[in-house]
Structures are given as C-alpha cells and as structure tokens.
From TrEMBL:
Domain NAD-dependent epimerase/dehydratase intervals: 3-235
GO CC list: cytoplasm
InterPro entries documented for this protein: Epimerase_deHydtase, NAD(P)-bd_dom_sf, NAD(P)-dependent_oxidoreduct
Domain of life, source organism: Eukaryota
Natural source organism: Papaver somniferum
Gene3D superfamilies in UniProt: NAD(P)-binding Rossmann-like Domain (3.40.50.720)
Name of this protein: NAD-dependent epimerase/dehydratase domain-containing protein
Alphabetized GO MF terms: aldehyde dehydrogenase (NAD+) activity
C-alpha cells in the first residue's frame, strides 16, 4: 500500500513515516524544498521511502504527490503560538486542508484520508470537566490564531465527512517525546528552559490542565485509524491530564533534582511575553513565550481518549513513563544536564 504523509519532516510526521515503513507501507514523504530532513529515515537505507517536494499551499505539487496513493495522512500544519504574520496559519492550516480534499476529489486512487487536527480545535474545557469528541468550539474566543485556524479547519473536515468523503479526524493532545525540537514539542522546550535555569519557577498557579500525548502513542493511533478507524469518525488521541507543575515535579523526581520552589505569576509571564514579542519583531526569531501562550496557560484543556481506546486499541502511556523516555534523550543530546 502506498501512503502519502504531508508534514513528513515535522516532529510527528517523521515518527509516522518510520512506523509506516515498519508496517510495510510504501511511503511518499511530502516535504518542502527547504525542509530539514533529519527526522526522516535515510532514503538509501529504506527502499519503501520516497520524497516528493512541494507545499500544501501549492496545489499542483500536492496533486502530483497524491497520485497513485491509497492513503493520505495529512499531518502538515503550522504550529506556533504566535507569528508576526498570522495569515500564514490560515494559508497552511485551512487552505492546506482544502487543497488535500480537492486533490482527493481529483485523484481516484485515494481510499482514506487521515487528518491530524488538534485538541485546540475543540476549544478549552470548563474547570473540572474532561471533554470528549462531542465538544464543539464555541468560537467566541481564541487564545491563539493557531487555535482559530485549527477550529476553522475542523469545521471543514467535519463537513467533508458529512458529504461522504472517507476522512477520519484525529485530535492529539500536547505531543511530546524524543525527536525533532520543533515548536510543537513544547514540553521539550520548557524542560530545556527549566534545566538550564532560564525558567526557575512553576508556570502560573499550577492549576492548569493539559492532555499530554507521547509522540509514539499518537503515531500508533494514526496507524490504528488507517486500519480500524471508522469513516467520518473523530478520535481524541490524548493522554494523561496534568499540569505543567506536574511535569516539572515528575521531571525533578526522575532526575533526582530539586523542584522549583516558587510560582511565576501570570502578570510577570505576560510582561515577559510582550517584551519577547517586541524583541522578536526586531531580530526575527520567534519567542518561546508570547501573550497568546500565556492565554493558553490560563485555560483548561482536559480531554478523554476513551473512544480511541475502545475503537482503535489506543493505549497511551502515563506522563511519568513518557518523561522517563524523554529526559535521558534530552540529556544525551546535550540539551539539558542533571
């Protein structure tokens, strides 16, 4: 079976390509000419892997990449909390999905589309509530333009499913794990800041909740969706619901290092975020922290993956197990010391 993976050079995409090759699939990795391909397996060592160059915003290149494929994994996305030009979120995350759906209509060989959405597309959850796939974003407020773009794209994907397109929609949580240090691997970045003493305290009041998903579990969920996912269905590929305070405490326990002893208040984080954005506009380097990031931290994002467990056999590891895999990798790569 020949599969196309968009966003193949990304954190999730690289892991997905490796696992699909192990499954015996012939993988066409759709990458931009400027992409860093370090996360992909070697072409010379993997006869089942080929590269297709282009961009999801460039329809002709995408259409050519889809030709002859039976499955499309649409994992390409622009994942950043802030950009100086927010229109890029919509050209990639919204128009890119539209292009994939249009390519499906034109290419007759495609049997199934596996679309990687995001828990952000469903919106934040009320305090104390763990939501599932039935939650719909209220669209009254968005913490980030990324969130807005994924919510718009989600409506397009759901409409495509209702129109009969063979699409399965997946909603990963906060993806983390060893691999590429992209903006999407936010847990790795925060741990790097924490262990290098650039983030000496807890973030906010420590009452935040996120659903943390190890990248290998999310990949397994994608492959299960290809094999078992019901057409038109939506599946949350989330994991343990915890706070970043829990992340820092577990990391301290695993590494036998001291826990942070104070909390950095939100007003201080917002001030630092504003300053970081001003500096970013001058030097052109995206900031780790921005006001939209702080807005995300002020809300709850707790989700249940029971449906994926029941229908896909999804089996996410605990946050402790995931960090026990991730922290030694960060140390061996020289990103942190403990």
């Amino acid at each position: 079976m020949k599969v196309l993976v968009t966003g193949a050079s990304g954190f999730l995409g690289g892991h997905l390509c490796k696992s699909l090759l192990v499954q015996g699939c012939s993988v066409r990795a759709f990458v931009r000419p400027t992409s860093n391909l370090n996360s992909l397996p070697s072409i010379t060592d993997n006869a089942g892997l080929e590269l297709a160059y282009g961009d999801v915003t460039d329809y002709p290149s995408l259409l050519a990449a889809c030709s002859g494929c039976q499955i499309i994994f649409h994992a390409a996305a622009l994942v950043e909390p802030w950009l100086p030009d927010p229109s890029k979120f919509f050209s990639v995350n919204v128009e890119g999905l539209k292009n994939v759906l249009e390519a499906f209509r034109e290419i007759k060989t495609v049997e199934k589309i596996i679309y990687t959405s995001s828990f952000f597309a469903l919106g934040s959850t009320p305090d104390g509530l763990v939501a599932n796939e039935t939650q719909v974003h209220n669209e009254k407020f968005f913490c980030t333009e990324y969130e807005r773009s994924k919510a718009i794209a989600d409506k397009i994907a759901v409409k495509a499913a209702s129109d009969g397109l063979p699409i399965v929609i997946l909603y990963p949580g906060v993806i983390y794990g060893s691999g590429k240090l992209t903006a999407g691997n936010v847990v790795a970045h925060l741990l790097i800041e924490r262990f290098n003493w650039r983030l000496p305290g807890y973030i906010g009041n420590g009452n935040d909740k996120y659903s943390f998903s190890h990248v290998d579990d999310v990949v397994n969920g994608h492959i299960a969706a290809m094999q078992e996912g019901r057409i038109g269905e939506r599946y949350l590929l989330t994991g343990e619901n915890a706070s970043f305070k829990d992340v820092f405490n577990l990391a301290s326990s695993i590494t036998r290092t001291q826990r942070p002893w104070f909390h950095i208040p939100f007003w201080a984080l917002e001030a630092y975020g504003l300053l970081s954005v001003l500096v970013a506009r001058i030097i052109g380097k995206l900031p780790l922290l921005s006001p939209p990031t702080v807005c995300v931290l002020r809300h709850q994002w707790a989700f249940s993956c029971e449906k994926a467990k029941m229908e896909l056999g999804y089996n996410p590891r605990s946050l402790k197990e995931g960090l026990e895999e991730m922290l030694p990798w960060l140390k061996s790569s020289g990103s942190i010391n403990y």
